[in-house]
Design a protein that fits this description.
Layout lengths: L1 H15 L6 H12 L4 H14 L9 H8 L4 H16 L3 H14 L1
Amino acid sequence: MKTLSALLILLAVICTGCGGGGGGDAENAATERNNVTSTDDMKASLESIAQSGEMGSAAMGFRETLEELKKTDSAKADQLLSDLDKLEAASSPAATKKIAKGMADKL
């Protein structure tokens, strides 16, 4: 019985591990790469989209960034929000590239 108890405790310790959580840093880095929080970040992401023609997760945060831009430059933000709607609806890589380049140039 003592042996069984000792084995169960050992198993619990092994399963629990050290709890280093090394994967959290990689997840945070991925989140930071995909979360656009400034117009500079947005411009860099748009330039990347203009090169590749693929939007993917690079556009995460665009709408929120533009809503923040409305506070300081409403006209530019409204125009870029309209362009963002077109970018999200683009059906071909060529159209995506063209719209993304135009948006980046406006920033």
